[in-house]
Amino acid sequence: MADTRDLDQVRADIDAIDREIQNLIQRRAQCAQRVADIKLEEVLALRNRGEAAAEVVYYRPEREAQVLRRIIERNGGPLEGTAVAHIFREIMSACLALERPLQVAYLGPEGTFTQAAALKHFGHAALCVPQNTIDGVFAQVESGECNYGVVPVENSTEGMVSHTLDNFMDSPLKISGEVEMRIVHHLLVAPGTAESDVTRICAHQQALAQCRNWLDTHWPRVEREAVSSNGEAARLAATTPGVAAVAGDMAAELYHLDRLAEHIEDYPDNTTRFLVVGREEVPPSGRDKTSLIVSSRNKPGALFTLLDPFRRAGVSLTRIDTRPSRTEKWAYVFFIEFEGHMQDEVIRSIVADLEEQSILLKPLGSYPQAVL
Question: pLDDT digits over 196-206, tens only?
Fold first, then answer.
């Protein structure tokens, strides 16, 4: 049946719905506050009885992943499920900030894709703290200055970020989540800069590599300089005459830069994966991944021996990479990622097999698979 209401009537309905949505959001926020109060009361009761009690855990990665999955699964349109989930992500972020705002370290400066990944995962109510290096992100979380950290680990065209993998070798931190970001690069300049003014193009080495063919075709004679991040490249473009930056939308907005060219990445499906690191282990969410480091004895068939338990158990490997061992010449450690959680019986059995065959085994954590 056709909707015969006029424009004013429809707008009145929208206003009424908005009021209802606002009231429901406030009710949800009150429930979040009550959850925080209950958690704190339980901890204080244990301590008053002289029993050991851990710090109050406000953020539950597995719980948020479950909520977002249910939102997508029950969505009926016309909005897409992921669009609705993004809205709920921000509601959950704001409600969590009423309990305790999360401090999240990320590879800075401001305007990097890592900052965008942190905001995508934790929402805009999180307090994002830029760090100059990946080491700095790990150090901030290890010291307790920040609750979590976000670091790049893998690009779909350029492979693994070795510095991130190396930090896991000695760090006690656990992986508590993952974020996937579609990476779109632009060539950015300060307002009023003409193409003929550009004498140097700056970006992180990964971004330069992801745009190599485009730059070779359109700017073959212009110097390229690798800098610490795309955010730093954008800052240089905003403050240094003749510098253009390869960076994304957030950097363009933050540093008020113009686009000389858009979508200059060589591959349209260019995606970077980020890891969320924290100090606590994450319980199962129902759809998880596990990462670990393993090193085998140097003998024929060593790698096959490490991987065969996964084949026999029917567990899918999602990533395997190697890094040189720091303790033995010409020896290597393997970073293995697979579906499942360390608490799953089948995964426990696989890990037991690996322990028998390896000289080093270090679980890095089980965590929810990326939802958004």
Answer: 999 999 999 98
